[in-house]
Amino acid sequence: MEILSEKLEKKSYRDGDVRIKIFGSSYKKSDILNEALNQARVEETGLAIPHLLEVKMIEGQWAIVTEFIEGETLDKLMEKSPEKISVYMEQFVKLQNEVLSKRAPLLNRLKDKMNRKINESGLNATIRYDLHTRLNSMREHSKVCHGDFNPSNIIVTPEDKMYIVDWSHATQGNASADAARTYLLFKLKKQDDLAELYLNEFCKSNDIAKQYVREWMPIVAASQLVKGNESEKEFLLRWVDVVDYD
Ligand SMILES: Nc1ncnc2c1ncn2[C@@H]1O[C@H](COP(=O)(O)OP(=O)(O)O)[C@@H](O)[C@H]1O
Ligand SMILES: [Mg+2]
Fold this sequence. Notes:
Blueprint: E1 2-7, E2 10-15, E3 18-23, H1 29-43, E4 52-58, E5 61-67, E6 72-73, H2 74-80, H3 85-100, H4 110-120, H5 125-136, E7 143-145, E8 154-156, E9 162-164, E10 171-173, H6 175-188, H7 192-206, H8 210-214, H9 217-225, H10 230-241
Antiparallel strand pairs: 1-2, 2-3, 3-5, 4-5, 6-8, 7-10, 8-9
């Protein structure tokens, strides 16, 4: 079996025409089933995503088995051909817009998830109150949100078809929240130029003001704090604190 990726508690393998993602013991059974269920629900929208085949135990560890998609991730392609970056970014945003055009009424709600994350953020009660207020004043939307939409979760096939993987964070909610999360992910990787290019493209293609996306920044930054990554903390706290942007 060929190793596709290896993180501390998550490994991905290829076995013929299937891809096996194996989870370490720090993952709760319910998280793994949630990821598989999200994937099954999003499959029903008709988006190009690898089909779920099995959820099972392999040598005492939970595993999700899906179709293997031949190709290269978009982040690798962006690295390889920087001269094509604006074309890639356009395709990336177009794909995200396609996800956001879908509905999956049984997915968890983004607002519920964000309210929970704010509670778990470790921020003080005053800031949490502000964040809950901000979140609850946002309009109700029910668009499919990937929740971790970044170029490493997109596989481009040799025929230039794009598949979206990694549905563990999917919810239904506001497009701007999903865009704020993507923007934050570029910033956390210190890809400031890509972050701005992305935000421009997303707002232009949806004919919306950047403020719509920026309004979500304190909330998505607070939710990212829950991951407890020390190296991100200072940066995220700055985003949480910035209340007036304009
Ligand atoms: N169905 C698939 N077919 C081929 N490669 C895949 C597939 N799903 C994921 N990968 C590869 O494995 C990597 C990690 O998978 P992903 O589900 O994103 O896990 P993680 O939660 O570790 O980010 C992806 O970035 C991609 O390169
Ligand atoms: Mg991933």
